[in-house]
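Input sequence (157 aa), recorded before submission:
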Amino acid sequence: MSDINPEQFEFVESTIKNLLTRLGISYDLERQDLNQETWFSIATSDPVFNFGEISKNISALNTILRRIFEKKFGDASSKFLIDINDFQKKHAEDIKDTARMHAQRVRYFKKEIEMPPMNAYERRLVHTVLQEYPDIATESKGEGFERRVIVKPVSLG
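Predicted structure, token format:
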């Protein structure tokens, strides 16, 4: 279960519904608790969320809702995400698969691999999934938008 309480859940859910209704977007909304986070999954056929800049649109919606939430509850650490048409879930699985592939390459070639720049959530996914590999280490390097994960072999002495 996530850190979001019932009052906060109701507030986020009603805010999402209000925003999408005001934008004239038809949708279905579902709540899911995954890995200590609450996901509000929106299913829609509206073209604004199906083509082109979907990642930026989802990010913008998440940012708007977090600001509204912070203003209401004064808590910037709430753990909820907005996903539209399972884009975020698919993207997260792609990142995990890429991390596992890099771990296999690091094992084989015994050389570190630098992944492309990622946001904090994406880097956390990589660190978490590669904890399953005792012979692989990860670390984040860089600043701001250039921050990335380094996947490297663990020295066994």
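Checked by second reader. The radius of gyration is 18 Å.
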